[in-house]
Design brief:
By secondary structure, the chain is mainly beta. The protein is 0% helix and 47% strand. The strands form five sheets. Strands 4-10-9-6-7 form a five-stranded mixed sheet, with no helix packed on it.
């Protein structure tokens, strides 16, 4: 002990016992008798060995909260008396989506899980403090969320020549930047004779444009020199 303080590190219990009492004794440094200072009663349970994870719904929307029910099991397959934290992440990603602590009986309800990507996503359920316990994988189909912004894919459409057609690709994206379905796109402004949308061999004044899978491939032409023109691409949402 240093200054009357002693630290015991790396203490472990290598077998299961129903009850264990740890006794701390103080002894005279010059020898002589020892006396009991404190005793601590412990319950020692089998370590966590596996995870039982409830099935997930077959599909979800990116950003919508999900929950996962998890039961921590011991080596005999019984419920472990555990209050360990349970984490959920996308397989291959270091970021944890959500975490919850078990209730002391091995049950954990991990809530507020928001998956940011779309497609066939595999979630990994794990115990951060016990990396030796095998993780459990669950797959779910995640669709894009509601339209949050309209993105122009081309690097720049800032400088154009009057009367010369140019191509623009416009993509609808959700709040996680996933491409998201959108039925139509509105292009504004559309002054008569000045701003045309070319559809195949015919000319059509710009207005509502159909999209496929949230993507519109546009050919535009500005028919006269305009010092400054702001083109607004606006989502046309279906009626609620």
């Amino acid at each position: 002990a240093a200054g009357g303080v002693a630290q015991f590190k790396g203490i472990s219990v290598d077998r299961e016992v129903e009850r264990l009492r740890v006794v701390v004794r103080a002894c005279n440094a010059q020898g002589g008798s020892c006396f009991q200072v404190q005793s601590i009663a412990l319950l020692v349970y089998p370590p966590a060995a596996s995870l039982l994870v409830a099935p997930l719904p077959p599909s979800a929307i990116a950003g919508d909260p999900l929950f996962i029910e998890v039961h921590i099991k011991d080596g005999a397959g019984a419920g472990a008396q555990s209050a360990a934290a349970v984490g959920v992440r996308v397989l291959g990603s270091p970021a944890t989506l959500a975490m919850a602590r078990a209730d002391g009986l091995g049950f954990a309800n991990v809530t507020a899980i928001q998956i940011p990507r779309t497609g066939n996503v595999t979630l990994e359920i794990f115990l951060p403090a016990f990396p030796s316990v095998p993780t459990v994988l669950r797959s779910i189909i995640v669709g894009a969320g509601a339209v949050a912004r309209i993105a122009v894919v081309e690097a720049s459409v800032d400088f154009q020549v009057a009367g010369v057609a140019f191509n623009v690709t416009v993509v609808a994206r959700d709040r996680f930047d996933n491409p998201t379905p959108l039925a139509a796109l509105s292009i504004l402004p559309a002054p008569a004779g000045d701003f045309l949308l070319l559809a195949g061999a015919s000319n059509q004044v710009a207005g509502a444009v159909a999209m496929e899978g949230g993507v519109a491939l546009l050919t535009l032409r500005i028919d006269k020199a305009i010092p400054a023109l702001r083109i607004l691409f606006s989502a046309v949402l279906a009626p609620a």
